[in-house]
């Protein structure tokens, strides 16, 4: 394995670096984007019962904010729960944009790796083929084995680039889809909170207990 990496030339170094970064991002996002961490179940119902029991203190709202991304969105509305509906919605929307941005952390890097590594592999192949044809010009076609070996070495970087790029692209698309799903659910929960706090949805929340 090490011999294959070495034979790929110096461009294998950035490709390997990209693979390490991509793996770290995938592991971190898999942990951070667990549904239970992003959208705890029945959080709106818990908030409603805290309000009914006069437990929505500043400390309680701070705990809700720090508990999950959905908690951050709901806490923004709770801070303005005694104000008009539109003010409450605006504060939720503003915080929601920041939450979505945090959920998308490192995804641009992962997408860049998925796009760049095949190009690095192709560049390595082009450089390798140039070297092969240079040797061919100088030494002729007397040694076919060396010629075939040089071509195979030139193709190693392309293969390595694709090996890194394909799973990176797959996970990038997966995380994007997962975040889009979370955004939809958080919007629904935020709307539910606004309606609950303005006395329009108490019965529904009771049912969700």
The helix/strand series, from N terminus to C terminus, equals: HHHHHHHHHH
In the residues, how many domains can be counted? 1
Number of helices: 10
User: What is the count of β-strands?
Assistant: 0
Instruction: Kindly provide the radius of gyration, computed on alpha-carbon positions and rounded to a whole number of angstroms.
Output: 27 Å
Structural class call reads mainly alpha
Low-confidence stretches: 205-209
Percent of residues in helices: over 70%
β-strand amount: under 5%
* Gross geometry: rod-shaped
N-C termini distance: 56 Å
Biggest sheet overview: none
- The pLDDT mean sits at 84
Report on the architecture of this protein:
With 209 residues, this protein is mainly α. Helix content is 83%, strand content 0%. The chain has one domain (2-207). The N and C termini lie far apart (56 Å).
Show the helix and strand layout.
Layout: H1 2-7, H2 12-32, H3 35-38, H4 43-52, H5 58-67, H6 69-79, H7 85-103, H8 107-139, H9 144-197, H10 202-207
Helix pairs in contact: 2-8, 2-9, 5-6, 6-7, 6-9, 7-9, 8-9
């Amino acid at each position: 394995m090490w011999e294959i990496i070495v034979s790929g030339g110096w461009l294998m170094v950035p490709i390997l670096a990209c693979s390490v970064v991509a793996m770290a991002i995938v592991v971190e996002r898999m942990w951070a984007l667990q549904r239970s961490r992003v959208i705890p179940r029945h959080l709106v119902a818990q908030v409603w019962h805290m309000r009914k029991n006069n437990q929505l203190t500043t400390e309680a709202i701070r705990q809700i904010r720090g508990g999950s991304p959905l908690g951050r969105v709901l806490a923004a509305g709770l801070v303005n729960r005694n104000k008009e509906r539109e003010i409450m919605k605006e504060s939720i929307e503003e915080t929601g944009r920041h939450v979505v941005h945090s959920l998308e952390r490192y995804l641009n890097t992962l997408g860049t790796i998925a796009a760049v590594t095949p190009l690095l592999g192709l560049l390595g192949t082009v450089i390798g083929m140039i070297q092969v044809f240079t040797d061919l010009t100088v030494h002729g076609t007397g040694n076919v084995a060396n010629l075939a070996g040089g071509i195979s070495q030139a193709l190693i970087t392309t293969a390595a680039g694709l090996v890194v790029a394909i799973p990176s692209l797959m996970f990038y698309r997966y995380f994007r889809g997962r975040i889009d799903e979370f955004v939809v659910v958080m919007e629904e929960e935020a709307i539910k909170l606004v309606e609950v706090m303005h006395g329009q949805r108490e019965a529904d929340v009771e049912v969700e207990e």
